[in-house]
């Protein structure tokens, strides 16, 4: 498990469930339902939408949108879904761009937080191609301290793969982590941390920045 995330994940999920009972804003409700599943919750919904998007248009019509929400077991009634859809369908075309949807759904983050997340990403992305893979991790992340490596259960590559899977969603673990996925993951973590200062300290410690 990644340094400093498991505990935050739990705190965030608990916090999100608490806030759900208080908020009436439909977008916020959807966001909190995702966050109640942990840091990868929003990204998980994104994966479901990608699977829905048969023609690779990167857009969804209302029917696909509702089916995606249902497949992801979001508790949402049709009126609420319509309201959310309308908010995202800015030009009234009857479709929504789901990259835009996911960015809006992500908890807002200050520039200071985004910057430190990108610093961590760049440190991990040894090859500098904008994607973190097992190759990149070999140079940065020491697998030898991992308990499963020490007791012989896992090879180094399996440790790396498990590490990357933290940032990937349950449906489509491809062993590659993009900037967007990394940001989405940390937007989740960030939601459970009140101050920029504390978030930055956590990131610096976790990634030795």
TrEMBL record:
SUPFAM superfamilies for this protein: EF-hand (SSF47473)
Gene3D superfamilies documented for this protein: EF-hand
Keyword vocabulary terms for this entry: Calcium, Metal-binding, Repeat
Keyword S-adenosyl-L-methionine attributed: no
Presence of keyword Calcium: yes
GO molecular function: calcium ion binding
Domain EF-hand: from-to ranges: 40-75, 76-111, 112-147
InterPro entries membership: Ca-bind, EF-hand-dom_pair, EF_Hand_1_Ca_BS, EF_hand_dom
Protein name: CAPSL protein
Species this chain originates from: Himantopus himantopus (Black-winged stilt)
